[in-house]
Specification:
Number of strands: 20
Helix content: under 10%
Number of helices: 1
Strand content: 35-45%
Oligomer: single chain
Order of helices and strands: HEEEEEEEEEEEEEEEEEEEE
Length: about 240
């Protein structure tokens, strides 16, 4: 093939290849990068340039495969948080070499360390969900996740609050509007941390009180003004894959 023709052919391939790339994120220290492509989650050591782990985006029994919906870095936890288009799970992938082992399989209570263990370093710690999270945001210490599940039969948006330390989902919130948890912001009101979730089309902002795991009034008493800041997501913007 002539050089000019070959160059044109490669240029045609480039957009298609770019479209295959999904969400990605970089750790706060800049060493680790998580990359996604259809059905795969890859972890790169940016210090050495080595691809150190490739994970199949599947359920633990292998029955459900999915593309990745969103990825965020959780600096306080030294981990990445991953949600999926079709897989009803949330993954936490730790890049801490001293991360506690993961107990999956036939486990009645993971705190009792029942079942077979896998290393916690660069392996997914799974939180099972009723339905996939299409997008999510994080609390200030990244121990809480607010995510959006599939809409309910009445067409209302459904938000879920998860606690990563115990890997549990609290009661969901069915709300009117188009809430955008990926843009959630952290606020403090009377010493209580809240997540403020804006509406994608300009509707009311929702306030979720993390202590009570319930919706609260948006307004804070005038004697204490909210200290508002962006949800942490590591250096630079966290990308989202094509929809």
């Amino acid at each position: 093939m002539r050089p000019r023709v070959l160059a044109g052919f490669l240029l045609c391939l480039a957009p298609a290849a770019a479209q295959q790339q999904g969400p990605s994120a970089v750790s706060a220290d800049g060493r680790w990068r998580i990359e996604t492509s259809p059905g795969l989650v890859s972890i790169v050591d940016r210090r050495s340039g080595e691809l150190v782990r490739t994970l199949s985006a599947r359920s633990s029994d292998g029955r459900i495969a999915s593309d990745v919906a969103a990825v965020r870095a959780a600096p306080s936890r030294r981990s990445f948080i991953v949600s999926f288009d079709r897989l009803p799970e949330l993954w936490e992938i730790s890049f801490d070499p001293d991360a506690e082992p993961i107990f999956d399989g036939l486990v009645h209570d993971y705190r009792l360390r029942e079942g077979l263990a896998r290393p916690g370093f660069l392996n997914p710690r799974r939180t099972r969900l009723p339905s996939p999270l299409r997008e999510f945001g994080l609390s200030a210490d990244q121990s809480y996740v607010v995510g959006r599940e599939a809409d309910d039969p009445q067409g209302r948006a459904v938000l879920a609050l998860l606690q990563l330390d115990v890997r549990r989902r609290g009661a969901p919130f069915a709300v009117v509007g188009d809430p955008m948890p990926a843009a959630a912001r952290v606020a403090s009101c009377q010493g209580r941390e809240r997540l403020l979730v804006p509406d994608r089309v300009g509707g009311d902002t929702l306030a979720i009180d993390l202590r009570s795991a319930a919706l609260s009034a948006l307004e804070c008493p005038p004697e204490e003004r909210p200290a508002v800041g962006p949800t942490p997501a590591g250096p630079g913007p966290t990308t989202a894959g094509p929809r």
